[in-house]
Structures are given as structure tokens and as C-alpha cells.
Amino acid sequence: MIAQPQTLRRTPWTSQADEAEISHWSTIAQSVAETLAANALERDRANATPRAEAELLRSSGLLNLLVPAEFGGGGGHFESAFHTVRILATADGSISQLLAYHYFNQAGIGFYAAPANQATWWRRTVEGGWLWGDSVNPVDPTLVLTEDGEGYRLNGLKRFSTGSGVGEVIIVNAVIDGGANHGKVLAFVLDTGREGLELLGDWDHLGQRLTASGSVKYTDVAVHPQDILGEVTDEPIASLLTPGVQLGFGNFYLGVAQGALAKGRELLLARKNAWFLSDAESYAHDVIFQRTIGELKARTAAVEALAEKLNRRFDTEVARSHELTAQQRGEYAIAIAELKVVATETGIEVANRIYEVTGASSTANSVGLDLFWRNVRTHTLHDPVDYKKIEVGAHFLHGELQPLSLYT
């Protein structure tokens, strides 16, 4: 009997994280978060390129959490990565975002590259200590990729390129213009020192200041065959990357809410006396303030429960590899959209209403409580949450799944 050839797995992640793994990476993340928290406000106000922060992520080992152990990586799972993102967000939303984007940019190796080519990419990212930025903003489609011999030439401008200002490499998505492959979308990786690649450093926003998310200009940048990860297709397992990014957002918003709650608790417990109309011995013993903070804590706990469930499920869906169906992928994307809705609204509400229990003195610039609100308010505008509500409603009412995009 002749053995039938087996299809190579698209992705290298085949199992679930155990408690020991999650505990290991959570401990590291907590240590990094404590370091970041020590001067988060000062660094945010300085608004400098986060090179020291990037080195902290690198030296901690967090950059290679998802890289298979056989290639020198941490051998971790996505559930551990989502935990890490959330923990960092309690201290520094910017660096949490930087790491979250890095994880899915780097994971493009497993989602886009042919299985036979992945080993080389995994080794290169570990040996180079790469932090991966991106240049894929789908609402800014100004890149032109044209054939040039065996490779291509890239021209155009991409805004909101997170991590580009500090990463060793940038993953780029661009449509081929002309030639036999006209219309195909390629994912490829460029080192930030490539000739013709210009980092504009123009990121200067209300929040998320240290994400190195400036624009990148490309002028006749050479894209060699060895730079190409693969074609961006609608294959369910390859397109699962996008819901994964949205799940990262949900964990990030949750972490910001938890950080704001922790800071608010600290400030509330430190408040002396009580409101003059109250019979309580302190603000922290006043039922008015207990009710408010209890409401915010309960809502945050509910978001956490949903996030925990979906974080673990991501590894289950990834493990299906090429057997993942479009229906399975679509239904999971809807579940993640549900998290996106409640995480967005809870993150903003907590970061805003925490002032109700911390009082007027907490608005002092030296306190820095505004950092949580500015960060979550800025990033939750990434894509309109109302469209996520529509996705959830359309599926609940009619069983509709959304067409594939870099937002769904």
C-alpha cells in the first residue's frame, strides 16, 4: 500500500498553553510592567522614540515568546501572548500596543509563508533580535508595487506604521501593479535601513505616544524574492491573523481598564477625611464611592472572563491549520467582535469615570491618571466600534458573516 503524502501544516502552533507556561510568561510580563510603570508618565511626556523600551522587551525574551523552541524561541502560545499584552497595558499602553503588533507581524511567518520556508524566517528573527513593525494600514492604500527583474520596486507612503520607528524590520502588504501577477497582494519584510525607505517620525498624538507609529515613505525600494513571506489570500487559516489582531486590541483595552482601576484604588485609599455631607470616616468607606468603583470593577471582570475564553480559543482555531473552514473562522471573528465592543466601552468608561472616586486633586498633571484615558481613547478609534456592533447584530439576526478585510 502506497502512503499518501501529507499536507504540511501551515502554522507551527499545535496545542494549548498549560498553567506553567502562562505563569512563566505572566511573571516576566509583570516584571517588565513594573519597570515601565516606574516612569511611564515621564516617558510619555518626553515623547521620544522608545528605543530603551524596545530593548527591555528584547532582553526580557518577550519578543520571541511565539517563536517555536526548535528555532531558539520561547515556544509559547497565543494565550500567553495575550496575557502579556494585557499585563503590560496596565502600566504602559504604548508599549503594550508595540508588543501586540509585533506578535502578529512576526506571526505572519506562520500565517503567510509556505511551510517549507518558515524555518529560515524563524531563525532570522531570533538571530537578528528583530522587533517587527508594520506598514499595512488598509485605509491608506497608497503603495505601488511594480515588477523589477526577479523582484519588485515599492513606492508610496504609509501612515500609522506601528513599530516602524524602532523595529529592525517592517512587514508590508502591497498590491502588485501590472505584469502577470497584477492585483495580487504580497506580504514582504524590509529592514528599516533599506535604501529608499524613509522613517518620517511624524507620530504625535493625544495618546499611545510611544508606539513609534509614524509614516513611512518608500522611494524605489528594492523588494527581493527573499524578502517575500507570501501572498495574502482569503484562506481561512491565513486570514485568521486579522481577528487575532482584534483580539489583541480587546486585551489591550482590558489591561488599560485594569490599570486605571488599580491606580484609582490607590488614590481613593489615600484620600483623607470624607465629603462634608457624608457620615463615613473616609472617602473609601463612603458607599457612594464604593458603589462607583464596584460597578467599574464588576464590568471589567466580565470583560476579563470573555477575554480569557477567547484567548484560549485562539490557539484551538490556529491548531486546525489548513483544516480551518471559512465558517469556523467567521463565527470566531464574530465572537471576537463581541469582545471588541465591550472592551472598548468598558475601557473608556473606566478610564473616564475613575475620576469620580479619585476627586479633583487627581486631575493634577503630576498624578498622570489621564494617561489611561488618553491611551484607550486614542487606540479605540483604530476602527469604528459601531461596525463591530453591526457585525454582531447581523450574525445574531440572520447568521451573516462579514466579508474578509484587514478589519474583519
TrEMBL record:
Pfam families: Acyl-CoA_dh_2, Acyl-CoA_dh_M, Acyl-CoA_dh_N. Gene3D superfamilies: Acyl-CoA dehydrogenase/oxidase, N-terminal domain, Butyryl-CoA Dehydrogenase, subunit A, domain 2, Butyryl-CoA Dehydrogenase, subunit A, domain 3. Keywords: Flavoprotein, FMN, Monooxygenase, Nucleotide-binding, Oxidoreductase. Coiled coil: none annotated. InterPro entries: Acyl-CoA_DH_C (IPR013107), Acyl-CoA_Oxase/DH_mid-dom (IPR006091), Acyl-CoA_Oxase/DH_mid-dom_sf (IPR046373), AcylCo_DH-like_C (IPR036250), AcylCoA_DH/ox_N (IPR013786), AcylCoA_DH/ox_N_sf (IPR037069), AcylCoA_DH/oxidase_NM_dom_sf (IPR009100). Pathway: Sulfur metabolism; dibenzothiophene degradation. Residues 142-221 form the Acyl-CoA oxidase/dehydrogenase middle domain. SUPFAM superfamilies: Acyl-CoA dehydrogenase C-terminal domain-like, Acyl-CoA dehydrogenase NM domain-like. The keyword Nuclease does not apply. Residues 247-383 form the Acyl-CoA dehydrogenase C-terminal domain. It is found in: Cytoplasm. Residues 27-128 form the Acyl-CoA dehydrogenase/oxidase N-terminal domain. It catalyses: dibenzothiophene + FMNH2 + O2 = dibenzothiophene 5-oxide + FMN + H2O + H(+); dibenzothiophene + 2 FMNH2 + 2 O2 = dibenzothiophene 5,5-dioxide + 2 FMN + 2 H2O + 2 H(+); dibenzothiophene 5-oxide + FMNH2 + O2 = dibenzothiophene 5,5-dioxide + FMN + H2O + H(+). Its main location: cytoplasm. Its EC number is 1.14.14.21. Belongs to the DszC flavin monooxygenase family. This is Dibenzothiophene monooxygenase. It comes from Paeniglutamicibacter terrestris.
